[in-house]
Amino acid sequence: MEVEKRIVVNGGMRLPIGYRFHPTEQELILHYLLPKAFASPLPSSIIPVFDLFFSHPLTFPGDQKEKQRYFFCKKREVSSNEHRIKISSGDGYWKPIGKERPIIACGKTFGIRRTLAFYETNKSSSNCNKTKWSMTEYCLAGFASAKVFGEWAVYNVYERKGSKGRKQSKSREGDAEELTCVHHFMVGSDHETGPPPPSPPTSPDE
């Protein structure tokens, strides 16, 4: 059997041809963001760390042909007077759109999702133009947000193709088996240092 070679590009792992990283919202928070916040080992190095609030989305690392890209980044708060997050390069700003929505599994809220749209600086005027670039921010909430290191969030960056082009990774409320570790992960415990390992696979007869 030929050994699969993993190629690391820009801090993230490039998948073999034909493979796509397409996690559900629960999987993204429980198996990636939660371990990241606790400085615990991740399932893989496929999500790179990158400051999304430094430059224009066109400069973000990774394959621009990918419809959706994921990044770890420290969360930024929206300015109270302007309701936006300016990027360091001065090329524009990110603005939250819509309402924040909870990510729920097993009857518990352990994440918050919000969408941000990118507005590009118009060099010929003082106004900014709304672009097709958007990103969905996922951060910890509820019992999962206690005793974590830093303000880590995970972002899904994508480019809208039209007025109905917003693409979200839909929640699968029925994935109870894969999320049973939520019940066993008690952040409030003084003896807990991170999330538990994934649940063992079930037999075909179950």
Protein model, in words:
The chain is mainly β. Strands 3-8-7-6-5-4 form a six-stranded antiparallel β-sheet, with helices on one face. A two-stranded antiparallel sheet has the order 1-2. The protein contains two helices and eight strands. A hairpin with a 5-residue loop joins β4 and β5. This is NAC domain superfamily. Pfam families: NAM.
Quick tags:
206 residues; mainly beta; six-stranded antiparallel beta sheet; two-stranded antiparallel ribbon; 8 strands; globular; disordered N terminus; DNA binding; NAC domain superfamily; NAC-dom
Largest sheet: 6 strands, antiparallel
Strand proportion: 25-35%
Shape: globular
Q: Helices and strands, in N-to-C order?
A: EEHEEEEEEH
Count of DSSP H/I helices: 2
Radius of gyration in whole Å, from Cα? 18 Å
What helical percentage do the residues reach? under 10%
Q: Structural class, judged by helices and strands?
A: mainly beta
Seen as an oligomer or otherwise, the chain set is single chain
How many DSSP-defined strands? 8
* Straight-line N-to-C gap: 31 Å
In short:
With 206 residues, this protein is mainly β. It has helices at residues 25-37, 181-184; strands spanning 7-9, 12-14, 68-74, 85-86, 92-105, 108-121, 128-140, 152-159.
Write the layout of secondary structure elements.
Blueprint: E1 7-9, E2 12-14, H1 25-37, E3 68-74, E4 85-86, E5 92-105, E6 108-121, E7 128-140, E8 152-159, H2 181-184
Antiparallel strand pairs: 1-2, 3-8, 4-5, 5-6, 6-7, 7-8
